[in-house]
Write a structure and sequence with these properties.
Blueprint (H helix, E strand, L loop, with lengths): L6 H9 L7 H12 L5 E2 L10 E3 L4 E6 L32 H24 L3 E6 L5 H22 L8 H7 L4 H9 L1
Parallel strand pairs: 3-4
Antiparallel strand pairs: 1-2, 2-3
Bound molecules: zinc ion (ZN).
């Protein structure tokens, strides 16, 4: 099999190795499991074979490596124009810049297409970035994820979290006093 990479490119690939069970993804999976959230893995019949699928929550979690997925860029801006994005991990390699730009821009477009398709199918899509799982950020990110999932679950179950008196007035038969109270206002 021909090696499609130059030695330099190979070096970058090896330093940003991507696999199905990457460490950031395992961190998220272990956390979810510990908190009783059950998921399916690498679901084949969904666009992009998403990593973590939470059927009960109608939610898909994508755990993205900052380099391969071009954290901080999208296809609408001039993508990858700057060497550094706001992300603390993303850096374009110093050599073969055009090669890497094209490669990562393709990934960004593919990610956006996948995100759109999943959303159109009715899934909530949550993206977690590798840099959000650094030790200093990890706890915030994971507990934030858990809060979001709980909100999604309550929303799906039709639980209203805000107490909206106007809505209650509409839903409840109006008592004579409240009618006159409204008229006098
Ligand atoms: Zn990042």
């Amino acid at each position: 099999m021909t090696d499609i990479f130059t030695p330099e490119q190979r070096h970058v690939v090896m330093s940003h190795i991507r696999s199905k069970d990457t460490r950031p993804e395992m961190l998220v999976r272990r956390f979810l499991h510990r908190h009783g959230v059950r998921y399916s893995l690498h679901v084949k019949h969904l666009p992009g074979h998403p990593d973590i699928v939470l059927r009960k929550y109608h939610t898909i979690i994508l755990v993205n490596g900052c380099f391969w997925h071009g954290h901080g860029f999208n296809s609408n801006q001039q993508p990858l124009q700057h060497e550094n994005s706001l992300c603390s991990i993303f850096r374009l390699p110093h050599s073969n810049i055009d090669f890497w730009k094209k490669k990562i821009e393709r990934n960004i477009c593919r990610d956006e297409k996948q995100h759109k398709e999943l959303t159109e199918m009715g899934w909530n899509v949550i993206t977690i970035w590798e840099c959000q799982l650094r030790p200093s950020e990890r706890e915030n990110t994971l507990f934030g994820l858990l809060r979001t999932l709980n909100l999604i679950l309550m929303k799906n179950m039709g639980v209203h979290l805000t107490y909206n008196t106007d809505e209650e007035d509409i839903a409840m038969p109006q008592a004579a006093e409240s009618d006159s109270a409204i008229e006098s206002n």
